[in-house]
Amino acid sequence: MGILLAVSLLTSWNPLATAQLTIVLTHAAEGKNVLLPVRNLPEGLVGYAWYKGRHVNSNHQIASYVIERQENTPGPAHSGREIIQPNGSLLIQKVTLEDTGYYTLQAIKKTFHNEEVTGRLHVYRVTFRIFYM
């Protein structure tokens, strides 16, 4: 029975090599800090660049990060609240409703065959209702 189970597990195993670079869809309350997490980073990276919007556009670059030096460099779309983490994720501090939208990560490889992925952030307003009894 143990051998049958082992064979069954091996035939249904899916290697991680097919995993795609992804940004996890994120929701956040206005005023909170939010992390746009990245999954399945490729091997051989030298850095990252984050952009506001669905495309890589130097005018919309939030920041870039050099892995070897662990250095963040702000871009034209940097508001002073964004930090790229060593794992490629983007931290946005004190999010506003205007931060809602698409964000694109460019994973920069040594070979310069870069990978790009786009994710979405939704910021919602926190409202309070007072009930009188």
From TrEMBL:
<dbReference type="InterPro" id="IPR013106">
    <property type="entry name" value="Ig_V-set"/>
</dbReference>
<dbReference type="Pfam" id="PF07686">
    <property type="entry name" value="V-set"/>
</dbReference>
<keyword id="KW-0325">Glycoprotein</keyword>
<dbReference type="InterPro" id="IPR036179">
    <property type="entry name" value="Ig-like_dom_sf"/>
</dbReference>
<feature type="domain" description="Immunoglobulin">
    <location>
        <begin position="23"/>
        <end position="124"/>
    </location>
</feature>
<protein>
    <submittedName>
        <fullName>Carcinoembryonic antigen-related cell adhesion molecule 6</fullName>
    </submittedName>
</protein>
<dbReference type="GO" id="GO:0005886">
    <property type="term" value="C:plasma membrane"/>
</dbReference>
<dbReference type="InterPro" id="IPR003599">
    <property type="entry name" value="Ig_sub"/>
</dbReference>
<dbReference type="GO" id="GO:1990782">
    <property type="term" value="F:protein tyrosine kinase binding"/>
</dbReference>
<dbReference type="GO" id="GO:0009986">
    <property type="term" value="C:cell surface"/>
</dbReference>
<dbReference type="GO" id="GO:0007165">
    <property type="term" value="P:signal transduction"/>
</dbReference>
<dbReference type="GO" id="GO:0002682">
    <property type="term" value="P:regulation of immune system process"/>
</dbReference>
<keyword id="KW-0393">Immunoglobulin domain</keyword>
<keyword id="KW-0732">Signal</keyword>
<feature type="signal peptide">
    <location>
        <begin position="1"/>
        <end position="19"/>
    </location>
</feature>
<dbReference type="InterPro" id="IPR050831">
    <property type="entry name" value="CEA_cell_adhesion"/>
</dbReference>
<dbReference type="InterPro" id="IPR013783">
    <property type="entry name" value="Ig-like_fold"/>
</dbReference>
<comment type="similarity">
    <text>Belongs to the immunoglobulin superfamily. CEA family.</text>
</comment>
